[in-house]
Structures are given as C-alpha cells and as structure tokens.
Write a structure and sequence with these properties.
- The complex is a heterodimer of chains A (about 180) and B (about 250).
- With about 180 residues, chain A is mainly alpha-helical.
- Chain A is built from three helices and no strands.
- Chain A has one domain.
- Chain A is rod-shaped, with a radius of gyration of 68 Å.
- Chain B has helices at about 30-45, 55-75, 85-100, 115-135, 155-200, 200-245; strands spanning about 10-20, 20-25.
- In chain B, strands 1-2 form a two-stranded antiparallel ribbon.
- Classes of the chains: A mainly alpha (about 180), B mainly alpha (about 250).
- At the A-B interface, helix 2 of A face strand 1, strand 2, helix 1, helix 2 and helix 3 of B.
C-alpha cells in the first residue's frame, strides 16, 4: 500500500486512494501539528503545571511528615510523663512503706521499753515483798519462841503451882527445838 | 455499509498556506492534537489552582496522573530518570488523551496514524541517543557490547543488540498505531454489521444482536486498550531512558 502512495503527486487531490495512514502527502502537516502541539504541551507541563503540582505534593508530604513527627514527639512526651508518674508513685510507695515500718519499729521499741520498766518495777516490788515476808517470818519465829516460853511457864505454873524461872524454861525450849 | 477506513481520513478544515510543495492546513488531526494539549493543560493547571491540602475531585485527578507517571518513571528508569519526568508525563498524557479522544463518537484518532506514533517514537529514541552520548560519551556504546559475554559470540551479540536498538522506534510506533487502528476498524465493522442486518427486517434484527453485543464488548475493550497502549508506550520509554542513564550493563 505504501508503494502506491509514493507514486502520487504530493499535495494532489485529496480523493487519492490508499490507506489514510500511509498517504505520505498528509505527513508534513501531521508532523507540523504534532511538533507544535507536543512542544506546547511539553513547555506548559515542564514550566507551569508540573512544578505547581510538585509544590502541592511536596507541601502535603512535608505537612504529613511534620505532623507525624509532632505526633511522635507528643507520644514520647506522654510516655516520659507516664514513666515519671510511675517513678514518683514507686518512690512514694517505698517512702510510705519505710515510714510505716519505722513507726511500727518505734512503737514496738517504746512498748518494749515500757514493758521492761514495768517488769523491773514489779520485780523490785516482788523482791521487797519477799524480803518483808522473810523478815516477818524470822520475826514470827522469834515470837513463837516467846509464846512457847509463855505457854510453858503458864502450863508449869498450873500443874506445879509455882512458876519456873525463865532460865529453866529457856533451857528446856532449846533442848526441845534441837 | 460505511467504509471502516473512512474514519482515519485526514480532512482539511482550513488551508493556512504552503511550505514547498506541501499544503499546510488545519486538519482534523491537528485540531485534535491542539484539543488534547488544551484538555491536559486545563486539567493540570486548574487541578493545581486551589493548592488544597486535601484535594478535591479535580485536583485528585491531576494528582493521580502525576503520581502514576512519577511512580512509573521511578520504578522503570530509576531516581535519576526523574529529570525526564516532564517529557515522559507529557508523552503519557498526550498519547492517553489522544487515544481516548478516538473513543468519542465522531472523534478522530490521531494515534491511528503511523507518522504520529513514529515521530513520537523517534523523539524518544533521539532523546535516549543524544542524552546517552552527551553524558556518557563513547561509554554509551557499551550498550551494544554486553559485559561478561565470551569473545567468540561477542560480534554476533553486538549485531543483535544494534539491530534490536534500531528496531525500537519501529516497534514502539507500530504497536501503538496498529492497536489503535485495528481496534477502531473492528469496532466500525461490527457496528456496520448491526446497521446492515438491522435493515433486513425481522430476521435481520435477530441477527444484529450478536454483532451489537460484540460492538459493545469491543468498545469496552478499546477503552482498556487506549489506556494500556499509552501506558506501554510510557513504560518502554522509561526503560529506554534507563539505558541512556546507565549504559553498559
């Protein structure tokens, strides 16, 4: 088909046959329009449209990344705050525990000390009481001897009619108690 | 029945003058090219006008086009390929819009003319050649001499590489041209069947249903082809540009 078109006179009658795409007399005009149109398109795109588009997309990209960065920073801040809060809570708990145990120890020590003084007082009183008792008992034992002497004197006086001398009674008592 | 070739006819709208023996005239082809430039420019400039942080529909369309081509360039030609981004973007939008204009009833498919696709392909290849030689000098020709090939097959490989390089503009332009032309002829043929059979009365009505269905299906397919061929043209351009950026491996 291309061969037939080449035989035609360029710029001749439009009614010439052949497949339109292979009709070479239309080529110069098509090439001209193509160069003009594509050239214009390239100029408009490269000088005007694409830089604007790129600016918009860059701006959005920057905005998104800065927003993400801000969000990450805020998250880090809140994490730090949470950590600080937990730290403070742990410290406070430890302090409270320390105060509680210290107080308990102090109260325990106070109670022990008081109990010791009370016990010491009681022991002293007990000692004193025991001493009094033993003194009383000793005294009582000496009194027993006097009472025995008196009783013996009275018994002898009733039976014999005459009171024995105290020396005799004393000797008799000593003999009995031995 | 209407001639399926008629839709590809170049019609003169207004004669502007003569250069040598050639008429220079505003043709339907030229008009559609200018219209495509107008539509693309309007889309991209109006789409960028509001500079909204959250894009509206119009701006979204412009942004999607931008991102789509930018991603294609980045993935096929690499980061340095972005210096060709305006060129590749213009090429993709131009071919896509011209293909889609062909789908408008009564429209004209500029890309169904071999001369248009061939000039675009030559533009791509000459960009590759000029940039490649300007930046890499003779190193650019390592493209034809792959490394790691045994000496005795190297001449054969080199010849094959050179032929395949020279075939690029031809295959690049043929693919787009043939796809657009064949699709439109098939569409016109089946649509013609519908009309012809429909004129035959009741039997014809029944017989017209099948070609009508096929015509509808081909129309859908042609929209797909219009996009895919624009994309294929673009991605091959990116791959060739990659060669210009990194020859010799």
């Amino acid at each position: 088909m291309a061969n037939t078109t080449h035989t035609e006179v360029p710029g001749g009658a439009k009614s010439s046959g052949g497949f339109p795409a292979f009709r070479s007399e239309t080529y110069p005009s098509q090439i001209l329009w193509l160069v003009l149109a594509f050239g214009a398109l390239y100029l408009v795109m490269s000088r005007v449209a694409l830089p604007r588009m790129a600016a918009i997309l860059d701006a959005r990209h920057d905005r998104i990344s800065s927003d993400l960065a801000a969000a990450a920073k805020l998250k880090a801040d809140s994490d730090a705050a949470l950590a600080a809060y937990e730290q403070a809570l742990a410290t406070a708990k430890a302090k409270a525990q320390a105060i509680a145990s210290e107080t308990r120890d102090r109260l325990q020590a106070d109670a022990d000390a008081k109990r010791k003084t009370v016990e010491a007082g009681l022991a002293a009183k007990l000692d004193a009481a025991e001493k009094t008792i033993s003194a009383d008992r000793t005294k009582a034992m000496t009194n027993v001897r006097g009472i025995a002497a008196d009783a013996a004197t009275a018994i002898v006086e009733r039976l014999a009619g005459a009171a024995p001398s105290s020396a005799q009674v004393d000797a008799a008592l000593s003999a009995v108690s031995k | 029945m209407a001639d399926p070739i008629q839709q590809f006819e170049i019609k003169t709208i207004a004669t502007l003058g003569k250069i040598g023996p050639y008429d220079i005239a505003l043709t339907n082809s030229g008009l559609f090219m200018l219209a495509a430039v107008g539509v693309i420019s309007l889309l991209m400039i109006l789409g960028a006008r509001s500079r909204a942080m959250v894009p509206g529909r119009f701006q979204s369309l412009a942004e999607v086009s931008y991102e789509f081509v930018a991603n294609t360039v980045r993935s096929s030609a690499g980061k340095e390929g972005m210096k060709f981004f305006p060129f590749v973007f213009s090429l993709f939008m131009f071919v896509l819009v011209l293909n889609l204009f062909g789908m408008v009833p009564g429209g004209f498919t500029v890309t169904s003319h071999i001369i248009v696709t061939f000039v675009l392909a030559l533009l791509v290849i000459s960009t590759v050649l000029i940039y490649g030689i300007a930046t890499h000098g003779t190193h650019f020709f390592h493209l034809f001499v792959p490394s790691g090939v045994p000496m005795f097959v190297l001449p054969v490989i080199t010849v094959i590489e050179i032929v395949s390089f020279l075939a690029r503009p031809v295959s690049l332009s043929m693919r787009l041209f043939a796809n657009m032309m064949a699709g439109h002829i098939a569409l016109k043929l089946f649509a013609g069947f519908v009309v012809t059979l429909g004129g035959l009365g009741v039997v014809g009505f029944a017989g017209a249903i099948l070609p009508l269905g096929i015509a509808v299906a081909i129309t859908a397919l042609e929209f797909l082809v219009a996009f895919i061929q624009a994309y294929v043209f673009t991605i091959l351009t990116c791959i060739y540009l990659h060669d210009a950026l990194h020859p010799g491996h």
